[in-house]
Design a protein that fits this description.
Radius of gyration: 23 Å
Order of helices and strands: EHEEHEEHEEHEHH
CATH architecture of the largest domain: 2-Layer Sandwich
Distance between the termini: 45 Å
Number of strands: 8
Oligomer: single chain
Number of helices: 6
Helix content: 25-40%
CATH class of the largest domain: Alpha Beta
Strand content: 15-25%
CATH topology of the largest domain: Alpha-Beta Plaits
Mean pLDDT: 84
Strand order of the largest sheet: 1-8
Shape: elongated
Structural class: alpha+beta
Number of domains: 2
Low-confidence stretches: none
């Protein structure tokens, strides 16, 4: 089982602080500045959508460049190896992989030169998987649990309401055990009476 971040929608206030912290932390490391999580809202609640770091990781299974691997109990994506095929985003069942544009340094947008035909204008926005802009490489980005930072995920540290928590194997085992206990008591009532009932029947 991998580690991952969960969000408590009852505590989330939709302030987007987690997105800003994620973006800035990765930008300072020279990585894509697009946030690795996205705050989703409905009429009543809000909560960030994050990578689940799946144990079987469909994104890693379809990546043709082996840019996505399991490391230290998490699914990590190496942006330098990404070949912009977008298969990982299509395979992700949770929509947790986004794409950020990467442009060669010192080349401005819509640059033209008399030595080559003019660049075609950027196409209208259709969607993350269909968009293509001349001169820009689409780079997959996903939650990496800020593995480069000893203090852990920036989103957890900066959330003003403590709505985000890092979950590991021990937390999952404890929650599963508690759920089994609650289910058993709900279905069968007080099990402390079982020895007396068995003696009475015999």
């Amino acid at each position: 089982m991998n580690r991952f971040v969960i969000a408590d929608s009852s505590l989330c206030i939709g302030c987007h602080t987690c997105e800003a912290a994620c973006s800035e932390t990765h930008r300072l490391r020279g990585l894509q500045s697009r946030p690795r999580l996205q705050v989703m809202r409905n009429e009543k609640d809000s909560a960030p959508q994050l990578c689940h770091h799946c144990e079987d990781a469909p994104c890693a299974q379809v990546c043709p460049a082996n840019a996505i691997v399991r490391e230290a109990g998490a699914v990590q994506l190496n942006e330098s190896l990404c070949v912009s095929c977008k298969l990982c985003g299509i395979a992700c069942p949770f929509g947790a992989i986004e794409f950020s544009g990467s442009r060669p340094l010192h080349i401005p947008a819509n640059v033209n030169t008399p030595k080559a035909p003019p660049a075609p204008p950027a196409a209208a926005h259709l969607g993350a998987f269909l968009d293509w802009t001349p001169g820009i490489r689409a780079v997959a980005v996903k939650c990496d649990l800020c593995a480069f930072d000893e203090e852990g995920p920036a989103c957890i540290r900066t959330c003003p309401t403590n709505a985000l928590h890092l979950v590991d194997n021990h937390d999952i085992a404890r929650a599963s055990r508690r759920k089994r206990e609650l289910t058993l008591h709900a279905d069968l009532g007080d099990l402390s009476l079982l020895p007396e009932l068995s003696r009475g029947n015999s």
